[in-house]
Protein: Cytochrome c oxidase assembly protein COX16 homolog, mitochondrial
Amino acid sequence: MWNQVRKLQKNRTVKYGIPMLLLVVGGSFGLREFTQIRYDAQKIKKKLDPALEARVNTQKQSVILEEEYEKVKDLDLGGWQNIRGPRPWEDSRESQDQQRSRLNKGT
Structure:
């Protein structure tokens, strides 16, 4: 009996392989539990404020979209010009003044 136990203790598979397998399999179950805690905590944090939740209600969503469309409908979206921002080595006030003077000359 004791001879068999000593043979198993000297066996490399029993000495190194089985603990490694237990570590890998046990670690995956442990990590699953810890990550589940993280996602549960995120769900709790993401709950909406009741006032905001009432406003985002899907039944009222079409009414909100129609209101926004009425606001945007009257805007003039065709009369804009693309003005580039200053490069990192340029002075922002100086480049803005130059662009304003070019726009005023053109108008």
Q: What stands out?
A: The radius of gyration is 34 Å. The CA atoms of residues 79 and 107 lie 12 Å apart.
